[in-house]
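User: Structure please.
Assistant: Input sequence and predicted structure:
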Amino acid sequence: MRQLGGRRALVTGASGGLGGAIAHALAGAGAELALAGRDEGDLAQVADAVRARGRTATVFSADLTRHNAAMQLAAAATETAGPIDILVNCAGVEIASAYTRYSEAELDGIIRLDLLAPLWLIQALLPGMLARGTGHVVNICSLASKGPLPYGVPYAAAKWGLAGATHSLRLEYAGSGVGFSVVIPGFVTGAGIFARHQAAGIAAPAVFGTVTPESVGEAVVRAIRHNAPELVVSRHPVRPLLALAVLAPRFAEMLTGWVGVTNTARQVAALQGRRDEPQQSAQRQ
């Protein structure tokens, strides 16, 4: 899908800073926007900014942890904005915590929003894209979809699943005119999950550095235009490290500690009072 002018895009998580940046990038490329999120005030601000660029923007408040809400969003966006050509699944939540401290509701909510909601929306909107012979789905994942993330087990599980689903869909619908891409932001400053941790004094591991929300938005546009299977948005070239996580899991465990990911995750969990202290063994062999 080289040209985005006049295409209709649905962006979830658009009331958050990262989703808003993606909406701006799509509007800059000529797309008309349907924006979904939980905060109606922030959605309205993003919509106003999109309209200021000469593009249309409709807003939808939605709790995507519920299947019927996702189905209703897909139907309402199509009815109001027209057939959806582009779906960007950006809505997500992460709770940094020792695994033993997650409640049943938290585990359920993370998996529903970060994994099931994108799958539900794809299932609702894909038939129309296939019938028209054109369309694109971008799933926003995370470095946690490529390697271990201590103190973020359900988030990592959801993002690994979403990345795997995206690549599987690419193969299943190859040649259909509908593309699927994974965009993997590194540590995003100024908006999104890490920005909130950063405001509390947590630093990104030096090997990764930080990236801007705008660079993620640009990557989404690039992924759509080139039907890219996967784009990693990071200040430094980290693909070799991500490849090692797959090829050498034991080494990846050590590497996660060396580059500071484990320490950063532990700091975030401790900041929220959700870190388990390691128990010392009573016997040593």
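Residues 104-132 form the longest helix (29 residues).
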